[in-house]
Structure formats: C-alpha cells, structure tokens
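Give me structure tokens for this 158-residue protein.
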Amino acid sequence: MTAQMHVPSLLSRAGAVSALTLAAVGGTLLAPGAAPEAQAATAHANKALSIAAAKKGAPYRYGAAGPSRFDCSGLTLYAYKKAGKSLPRTAQQQYNKTRHVSAGSRQKGDLVFFHSGGKVYHVGIYAGSGKIWHSPKTGSWVKLDKIWSSKVYYGRVG
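Here you go.
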C-alpha cells in the first residue's frame, strides 16, 4: 500500500470503498496519517540530493567522506547519512546494498554506479535530466555533470 487511491468511480454514495474491492481492481489504499514508503524514500532521496548539491565546489580527496572534502562514495555516504539513511563506504558496497532499478525507473536521488568488467568504480547521485552530482577525481571537486557512459547501473537507497 504505497500510493493514494485515484478511482472515484468506485466510491459509494457514502464515499467509501472496501479494501477488498479496491484490491480486486488493482487499486491501493492509503491509511490516514501513514507515510507511504515511496513518499518516505523520495523524501530521503531529495534531501540527499540537496545535501550533495550544497557541497558544490568541495575538493576531491581520496578516502574523504566530508564535511569539506569527498571522494565519490564519500559524497554519497555523507549526503545520505545527513538525510537519515546509512550506506557502506565504497561504491561497490553501496551498489550491493541498494535496490537496483532500471534506467527507465530512475528517480532524482537514486545512485548512479559506473561499471567496467562487472566491477563498480564510481558513484554519483542522480539529479535528473541525465546529470549527476559527484566528486570525480584528484584535482577536481564536487560538481554536476552529464552521465558520460552507457555503462551505468541505478540503485535506490531503501
């Protein structure tokens, strides 16, 4: 049960429909006052994305996880930690922990993992429009870049 119901034709004159009827037609039901999982995950992802973007210009440093210097996985770890979610330290470990999603299902705040030969070597946070926030390499800094490779996986932090 993760989305609000949008099936007004099923409502009776009293304005109610049973959960069984709703399930039979493929609808969903939202309990009053409950925070749907999808909305909660999106809130964490949006917060992490904002935190990463706020670190724009912070210098790259191998092994650094903030608050003023970052490597790629250090940035994602830091951003999600500040958003209330924990991630392991390396890009490969982060990939292993996320729920894998297709490119067509990616959302802002999802992690973008660059891979070669089956191994993940870089990670950033999806910003929408084919771009990521990341800390790319020595001599660089946290910045927004276009995704430059087709060899990427997407992962959603749960």
